[in-house]
């Protein structure tokens, strides 16, 4: 993923939902263009910067104008009841000015740029009420509208706090090991290849690879995996993870400002620049509604003038103006999307757009890649068969000696069975087949059954392959000595994940480039019946296209060969937001961890969010439809309409915030070990030995 400078506070929320053209730039919030008033109180925060925390409501200065307005409004009404008319009028004017200060300037600035908004409707209504002599009602409107805006801003800030919390996981400074001695520098100055010194209990400042030392790291705050992961030399460690009791030297693989955490936040930030179908529906309704309301109010006023009762009907026109304002509609979807996406990011699910969030809740079929997704991506030797006259120890030792200098995962699995075996001499590799070397006086070949005929061990080779293993034949001096069966084991939570999906009525299938026997064996263990094996990347994409025409389909993968299918799917899900760049860029959803059980949890979360969005849109429209005739025929006055309208907006916001609640399934434990994702190079090596 390209380097991204993150500014969390600049997340664009509801855009110009009812005020004009939609600005999709995620890092710009245009003067309160959320349609209703002042700017959200988001603050910039980045790697190495202390994120500002939303204060408790009684200390939030953003609420001060509303508090002042409310206090003077109450005082004005109290003075009016006691007969102090002049003092009451002064108090009401103070209340009006304090409340109006929060939205009138912004509305006028937007009007100067040719943009209309709900703030303009409220400004016209307040000015009209004053001209008609209803200063108290104008003050009531200003107070309630400013209060609703302040509560909306706090709701948006609350939704963003999940992203700020992610960035706060990056420490302020890092200790670097330099030739001239250890130095402490701001995290922003950490560069790739710097060597970080990580003490016990310290957070890791950026992504890296352990160069020296052994310890356990807690990645729960980053990936949601609750079990500490043992790490040693060569193991990858993510930014924000907490070191255990040991000390580590970590070679940075990313700059301090461009690591997995900032990439995660960048992905989430994209969610506020793009909108789902329901968000676009709200925009389509709200945007023309503002000029329509202005025209309707003008017609009502003209009718009153023609009917000879201008004062009554002009007042009703102002009430209509307020009653039909679409502020609740404009905020109905964004607050829900931001709350739900921010919440999902905290349990390891990064949803890249509002559209993806919406579509995620419609999924009826989930297609899985095999290697590195359903399986751990780390082949292990599970069985060895020998020919007469040879022992298991000899077969494994010869194979380990020849494979000692190879880098493919099957070689690592074989050498792990005989770690102290000296490397063979005169080693050469036959690309796509196997490897040859001299062990002592013997010439040893190790490769796939396609290169070396298993001879009398042919039935054994078929049996191992049928069990889902990749078969390696070991030959010495032209004679088959034995077979080694290695298998990329199923993730321990894979079967449970498939069971949970089936319980939700969601179908599953496997798409893999592996051979059919291995694919069916792994699928049977996972509980998947529909298997499509030996699939090229284009075949996977074609299969997803065909499935998506029948029902919304998600594709789950991690490798570069999954990118076409991820991009084609209704929703593409990348396993590991720091894995294959092609997979992450092509996907709509990325998991920061590898626990597959997050898939059914995230689907539940998305479906619930869609329901809340639907309810919010319906409620916002019902308020407009219900209040319009009441305002038109004088059943409710200006104060009554304002009160009902703003209470409804607060209800919509509160309902949207409910989408932030984490599903119970998201609190599950994670896989027992942090298995790395299989790289494209590893996949090519596996193919060369007959597997995927």
Give the helix proportion (percent range): 40-55%
The dominant shape is: elongated
Biggest sheet details? 7 strands, mixed
Quick check: average pLDDT? 76
Number of domains: 4
Number of strands: 22
Cα distance spanning the termini:
26 Å
The percentage of residues in β strands lies in: 15-25%
Continuous helix count: 23
Short description:
By secondary structure, the chain is an alpha+beta fold. It is 47% helix and 15% strand.
Question: Can you walk through the features of this model?
Answer:
- By secondary structure, this protein is α+β, with helices and mostly antiparallel strands.
- It is 47% helix and 15% strand.
- The protein has 23 helices and 22 strands.
- Strands 10-22-21-20-11-18-19 form a seven-stranded mixed beta sheet, sandwiched between helices. A six-stranded antiparallel beta sheet has the order 12-17-16-15-14-13.
- A hairpin with a 2-residue loop joins strand 16 (470-476) and strand 17.
- Helix 8 (277-307) packs antiparallel against helix 10.
Essential attributes:
single chain; disordered C terminus; Rossmann fold; alpha+beta; Calcium-transporting ATPase, cytoplasmic transduction domain A; disordered N terminus; elongated; seven-stranded mixed beta sheet; 692 residues; 47% helix
